[in-house]
């Protein structure tokens, strides 16, 4: 949420709250207007740091905490894509940060955890 504003009570008896937010997955601007006396649902954001197991045809295979693989995440479509491919091709031990909310998941950061 990047902006919250409230209006005065109108002729129907409720003040309104105007919310402006930026979608964390695609950067889209979203707006909502809610009566100030009502509750708002808030999504929870989950972060996981998972090592890369392999890369195949635009997808990344990650090792989960319980030893299974997670094979359904696409490579990001920005400069992070090149960093992941280059680092994995060089044989580096890479860990990606996976952000999840509202049924969507996305790789958002990369870290080299190999010895220095």
Automatic annotation (TrEMBL):
Cross-referenced Gene3D superfamilies: 2.30.30.30, Nucleic acid-binding proteins
GO molecular function: ribosome binding; RNA binding; translation elongation factor activity
Pfam families found in the cross-reference section: eIF-5a, IF5A-like_N
Highest taxon, organism lineage: Eukaryota
GO BP term, pick one: positive regulation of translational elongation
Alphabetized UniProt keyword annotations: Hypusine, Membrane, Protein biosynthesis, Transmembrane, Transmembrane helix
Record PTM: eIF-5A seems to be the only eukaryotic protein to have a hypusine residue which is a post-translational modification of a lysine by the addition of a butylamino group.
Translation initiation factor 5A C-terminal domain ranges (all copies): 55-111
Transmembrane segments: 45-64
Record-stated family: Belongs to the eIF-5A family.
Protein known as: Eukaryotic translation initiation factor 5A
């Amino acid at each position: 949420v990047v902006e919250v504003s409230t209006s005065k009570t109108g002729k129907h008896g409720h003040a309104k709250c105007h919310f402006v937010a930026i979608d964390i997955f695609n950067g889209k601007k979203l707006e909502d207007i809610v009566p100030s006396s009502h509750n708002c649902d808030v999504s929870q954001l989950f972060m996981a740091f998972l090592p890369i197991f392999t890369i195949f045809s635009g997808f990344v295979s990650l090792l989960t905490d319980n030893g299974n693989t997670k094979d359904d995440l696409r490579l990001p479509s920005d400069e992070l894509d090149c960093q992941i491919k280059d680092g994995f091709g060089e044989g580096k031990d890479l860990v990606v940060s996976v952000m999840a909310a509202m049924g969507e998941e996305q790789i958002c950061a990369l870290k080299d955890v190999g010895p220095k």
